[in-house]
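Here is one chain, start to finish.
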Amino acid sequence: MENKYLNEAIIGNKKMLATFTQKGEMQRMYFPSKDNKQYINFFHTGVKVNESDLIYLHDDINNIYKQYYDTDTNILNTEITNTYFNLKILQTDYCLIKENVLAKKYIFINEGKIDLNTQFYIHSELLSDSNNFVATKMVDGGMLQYAHDFAVSIFAKNKDVIKHQINGSKETIKRAEIYDKDYIGMSKDASMAYEIGMIKPGEKKELQICITIDENKNISDIEDEIERIKRIDFEKKYLDTKAYWRKYVKKHNGLKIKEPQNSYDERIYEIYKRSILLFPLLTNPETGGIIASPEIDENFTKCGRYAYCWPRDAVFITKAMDILKMGKETEKFYKVFCRKTQSKNGMWEQRFYTDCKLAPCWGYQIDETASVIFGVYEHYKYSKSEQFLKDNLQMCEKAVDFLKRYFTDILEETNKYHVSYDLWEMCEGVHLYSLASIYSAFDCMLKIYDNLGKNVSEFENNRLKEEKINKSTKAIEKMLVEVKKYINQNMYDEDKKSYVRNAQDKKMDISILGAVTPFNVFKAKEKKVQNTVERINMSLRTYTGGYQRFENDNYMNGNPWPIANLWMTLYYLETGEKKKAKECFDFVVKTAGKHYFLGEQVNNETLKPNWVIGLGWSHAMFIIVLEKLYGKEN
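Its structure:
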């Protein structure tokens, strides 16, 4: 697959996800979940005007672009104006809400003074391999690109294909000279054209393109489905989709943030609303699994890929979801996804597909197991549902038992367990952040028992169960003391008077703040913590005000991370230093992308997101900060 690193815009519904460049080129299309499968290698469109060669909509020297979403929706508009012919094309992309159809509407407007005889071209290549070979069949109004277990149908409503080419069109289409006598062929890429006709000055014409994906259906059934979809009133579906997303934003305005009064507050409001619109696009509605972000690097050229569910990332996203009144989605994550993915020994592996199958891993992070217990109790704090605690009690107990064994192994140095990676997946060892998460997991387990009292699951009034819980409670209480003691003895540098991320690796790391927020091992104003924050400011704060993850971070050139700034914001809110909190927060607000997506990282020169745009963890931390800033006053 071609390398396409930046997803500038994202659309989707419950089962479909598609990403686009800032010039409107569709880069990826997922179905039936947000992480599997991805079908397209490329999807290019263009026009032939009068006697011209093909003018690609996404790439022509005479094109200028403007891109925006319909307000408070996941409906994307890209205006492409070809200045040579003065032809303006408005491309609107969205996924229908109740149909797995990606709709692409094109409006062609002649803004010049001469007639424009126009044809529209599509050149599509699917991903293909020897085990799932892709071929193409022309159908009424379009083409069907199919393999053994799937088919992607691309067709127009009320338009016939005027010409096509199934084999070898990569060069001929550049001249808009495609031709093929065959209606079917063994090629993963194919091209076709539609007659738009003569567009007079001031006149406009429209074209409706539809893309559907079907799995394990025979061709005749798919062709029947195409004919049914052609009968859909797409103008009505467009309005329905717009109304759905606007209602969704209104429903999930959990912080009750009102219309902004100035440009700064407007940016905050737009990031807030984009977060609301992003989370359902990352979530598998059947399992509650949440991908970290839409994929950016299928070929592993720069990273280990992103379209998987990390339990830790998802825990913080579900906390944000609770703030946004998405409690049902949060509950499904714990009651379905977490329970299905928990290992027999009680831990969670590094990452999973959202259908709960194990994804490619290179180690585990103990904080992920601890974070799930933390997350269960965090959700209870919002829902106040004892039934939720009961339903997940056994899962949490298994996880706590694993954490007890893991921490005992650290204390006794018996090396029974494979060493854990840190939360950044880069360093193996015993890490302060990981220990802080374990501390919090133990603390949350005690609170779960305390809130349930004697009414614990189906074993209510069962003496043996009660004795087991009492024994476990005492063991956990002892472990709490031991974890904090271990941190103070092994994770504090007396020479530098600060905490360190790892006893063997004493680089400053923003994740050290996890011991304060969210895991509450230490208070924000403790002297040792304040000394540590002073060192963080000296070593991780860059000249723009953005914070790096840790010293000498070389991943993607070691840029500032919005997560790091948001973590600092949370810390300063804990200490009551509102001015410093605002300075840290301002960096995130001003560096949000064009469509108010937050990236994983920010280019310190351009102050724009430059890696993993639409990172769920970044948006989650933003919402968590907003709750601290606006929650009480609203």
